[in-house]
Structure to design on (391 residues):
């Protein structure tokens, strides 16, 4: 039920009620408890196409092939760096029967990976174009340089490298595009490392900032104009080490989106251990904010709740880790099930084979075009209120 397609509300109060309660709360001792991002989970229409793209085109490693524990007749795929590091895993529920999703409140805009260097972005652009992927950029702004692409289901993915001294100009990047070069494979100096940030959508800077401060100990919010859309704002939130791993797009006019194929389902942040997770749960309970309670996902423990705009968030523990039931060299090579799901294996495998027989898609796919400019909320503002529709 919790992670089903309808995504029931987990706030338990409306946004105004949350604001009133949070604003009266005393300071807490949760500073530094959230270390960054753990994983980001999305929805895909086809596991074969999804696997080919994220391993063959983006160069990630599949580190877990399992099922959605709340919907065991649908797959859950995990991709990460070579070492399956915390903070590098992008995961997908395979739900071919869902409609296309829509970005908006409750349905995040995009996610971003960290590239090894600014120079690697030129190689990434050449490589992605050679694979037929729609790409825009690179753009120089906010002390970083970024490319944007879309995966076969339409997910917007940013690949970004830091430029803290603002040394790279847009003119330099535009000149470099005139000599794109040729890249025939993903080289070691291109490998994507961990997530850089996740970008949900929200209506209210102050409320969102208070929510993360009082509930999760994330401080020092920074707001700046969104260079891609006048009248919208970027809100960066994080911790001392990673001050902007949550990077909200803020607009008072943003409408509710809905999660479907090609959208971010939820964003998971990481804590060190079970006690840290329980401290956050106690804080949520003190506020009367509905949450899932701690759920054993076998490879980590999870706690789910929503922000004031309906975005589904998770706090996950670092351990036990993806190698708890597979040798490191065998990660992601076969269907693995937690012990409490294992008795259903035969039935699950039969259902998955039937799904696959009805869900054949061609490779290479027809990649959706990247929106220009890439971080505008025009789609959410104009379309989200219409409800689900096919693309």
């Amino acid at each position: 039920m919790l992670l089903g397609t309808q995504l029931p509300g987990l706030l338990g109060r409306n946004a105004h009620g949350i604001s009133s309660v949070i604003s009266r709360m005393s300071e807490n001792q949760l500073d530094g408890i959230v270390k960054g991002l753990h994983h980001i989970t999305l929805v895909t229409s086809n596991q074969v196409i999804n696997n080919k793209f994220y391993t063959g085109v983006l160069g990630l490693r599949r580190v877990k092939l399992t099922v959605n524990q709340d919907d065991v007749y649908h797959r859950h795929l995990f991709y990460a760096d070579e070492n399956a590091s915390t903070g590098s895993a992008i995961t997908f529920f395979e739900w071919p029967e869902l409609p296309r999703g829509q970005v908006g409140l409750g349905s995040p805009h995009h996610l971003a990976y960290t590239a090894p260097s600014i120079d690697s972005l030129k190689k990434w652009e050449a490589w992605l174009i050679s694979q037929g992927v729609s790409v825009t950029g690179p753009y120089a702004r906010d002390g970083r340089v970024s490319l944007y692409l879309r995966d076969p289901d339409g997910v917007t993915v940013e690949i970004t490298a830091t430029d803290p001294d603002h040394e790279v100009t847009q003119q330099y990047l535009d000149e470099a595009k005139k000599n794109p070069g040729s890249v025939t494979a993903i080289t070691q100096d291109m490998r994507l490392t961990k997530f850089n940030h996740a970008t949900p959508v929200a209506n209210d800077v102050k409320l969102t900032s208070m929510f993360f401060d009082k509930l999760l100990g994330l401080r020092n919010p920074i707001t700046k104009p969104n260079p891609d859309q006048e009248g919208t704002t970027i809100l960066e939130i994080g911790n001392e080490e990673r001050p902007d791993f949550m990077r909200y797009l803020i607009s008072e006019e943003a409408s509710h989106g809905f999660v479907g194929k090609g959208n971010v389902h939820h964003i998971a942040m990481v804590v060190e251990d079970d006690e840290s997770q329980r401290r956050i749960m106690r804080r949520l309970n003190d506020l009367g904010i509905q949450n899932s309670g701690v759920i054993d996902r076998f490879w980590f423990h999870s706690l789910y709740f929503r922000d004031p705009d309906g975005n589904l968030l998770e706090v996950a523990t670092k351990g036990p880790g993806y190698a708890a039931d597979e040798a490191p060299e065998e990660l992601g090579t076969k269907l693995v099930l937690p012990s409490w799901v294992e008795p259903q294996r035969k039935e699950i495998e039969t259902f998955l084979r039937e799904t696959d027989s009805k869900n054949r898609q061609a490779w290479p796919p027809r990649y959706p075009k990247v929106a220009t400019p890439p971080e505008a909320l025009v789609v959410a503002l104009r379309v989200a209120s219409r409800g689900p529709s096919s693309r």
Q: What stands out?
A: The helical segments are 15-23, 47-57, 118-130, 170-176, 205-216, 274-287, 345-358, 378-383. The radius of gyration is 20 Å. The chain has one domain: 15-386.
